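User: Here's a chain of 296 residues. Predict its fold as tokens.
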Amino acid sequence: MKMNQQKIAPYLFISPFFILFFIFGAFPNLFSLFLSFTRWNGMSKIEFVGLKNFIYLITRDDFFWKSLTNTFFLLLIGSLLQHIIALPLAVMLDSKVLKGREFLRTAYFLPYITSTVSIAFLFGYLFDRNFGLFNYLMGLAGLPGIKWFSEPSTVKPAIAILLNWRWIGWNTILYLAGLQSIPEELIESARVEGAGRYAIFFFILLPLLLPVIFFAVSLSIIFGMQLFDEALILTGGTRGNPGGVDNAGLTTLIYLYTVGFRWGKFGLGSAVSWVLFLIIISATVTFKKIIERLQH
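Assistant: Prediction complete.
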């Protein structure tokens, strides 16, 4: 009897995790997969419709394709562009001759730990067409002010500015951690052999940083494809206008929220979530194959 209790005890200790995971993780995901094949508004009887939701999204839903196009564009200029800036910044912060390195590391990282909603509201004031700081600075430079959220062409650049400001520091710290894990002897040996700064960066540091680059860019793909808070607040989505003027800021996750929780089409909303999931998986796997090819 005592032996049986000893065997059961470890499973009892870890059981809370599995119970909570099933209730808040596995069950909601499986239920949303089931709902993606149904028509349901949350109150009526669930009606099984097969692949109709997915076929509708792909063949007839212009708003879905608009949201997907916006999301990919913001992923490019608001998420992936960060890495082109963050990597040189990390190299700079890794320099031992740079004064105030600790202060700069903290300053770069602060935007990441600040509340997303607070940042979005702050940038909403900064982008104000009449009293915003950005238009004020443009006026000092003799340039006309921009109607950031009144013109479709400027909505996505405004959101991208916020995203870059918030996430460049995070990626910089990731790359800095990767740089500090590279043995100093390798760099010193290259210098003794006559390699310059650019040769060291492109032929030593960059190849060794490829695993970190894969990790950082994969996170950007995952978070970029799920962009929600910043775009919703900046475009006035909290006031019933998801996506702003001409739906220029309508991301796929905002569309999912609109379809599911505002229009009550939970089946269609679940289909959107699973299409988005497949896109994220495909993009991540494709990038992994690119990194593996570069490593060989």
